[in-house]
Structures are given as structure tokens and as C-alpha cells.
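Async update (no meeting this week)

Hi team, since we skipped the sync, here's where things stand on the single-chain job. The sequence we agreed to prioritize is pasted below, unchanged from the tracker. I ran it this morning and attached the output directly underneath so nobody has to dig for it. Comments welcome in thread, and please keep replies under the output.
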Amino acid sequence: MVKKMEMVRAIAAIISTVILIAGIGFTVVQLRHARAARERGAMLELVHRLQTPEFARAMRVLFDIYYGPSNQKVADAVHQNPGLIYDLMATWESLGIMVYRGEMSLDMVDDFFSGPIVISWDVLGDYVRDERKKLHRDTTWEWFQWLAEQMKEREERKPPVPAYVAHKIG
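Output:
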């Protein structure tokens, strides 16, 4: 009788351990799904926000001065298009914070925006540094810079391959 009770207790302990492990496993899977859904939602919202005529104009302004940007050319472009350029920098700033805090993966941002982010920093980096000096505020556009540096470091380790080459079908 005692051995039967011990066996029942052992079986009950095994069953409860299996249930506990299954529960933990289920929780981990659910958390991963929730994180992926949150990240997809954030990226879709961002992409939707960026598919505007204003964003396209801001990128066009930057591309127009990309080849041989001078401080004067950049300053003129910013002063002629302040809303466009500041909106663009604020977008990259927000994206940098979201990546740093784990709300969005650097891989996903890289897939969507690595080129525009790097080009934006290449064109606007000196302008941002000048603004920091004028404002006596080194944190001005800090996350924009951080994000651009992350993109550049990734490209140094592994040069970017265009999607039409990397994912060629057939």
C-alpha cells in the first residue's frame, strides 16, 4: 500500500512537471508571437507613415545634394525645406529609439530603410554636428546618428546585396 502511494505521488509529480514545462513552453511561444506581431505592426505603421508625398520630397532633396554635399548646400536645403528635412530626421530619430529599445529589429529596419538612413546621415551629419554646437546640446538627433552608424557598421561587415539579386527566383 505504501509503495502504491509513493508510485502515485511520483506519477503525479511527473505529470505536474510535464504540465509546468508545457505551460512555460506555451508562454514562450506566445511571447514570441506577440513580439513579432508588435514589430510587424510598428513597421507597417511606419511604412504607411512614410509612403507620403512629403517623405518622397524629403528624400528627393537629400538625393539631389548627395553627390558632393557642402555645408552650404545642406544648410540651404534645410532652410528651403525645413519641415521636410526635420520630419525626415525625426523619423530616423524615432526609429533609432525603437530599435535600441527592442521594439523593432535592426534587420527589419535594414531591409526597409538602410540606404535612405545612411544617405540621410551622409548628407546631414555635418549639419547636425553644427546644430549641436549652436545649441550646446550633444544629444540633438543622437538616435538618428546612432541608427545610421548601426547601418554603416552592418554594411562594413557584410556589404548590402540588393533584394533583386539576393532573392532572385529562377
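Quick observations from my side:
The helical segments are 2-50, 53-66, 71-80, 82-100, 106-135, 142-157, 163-166.
The chain has two domains: 1-39, 52-166.
Reply here if anything looks off.
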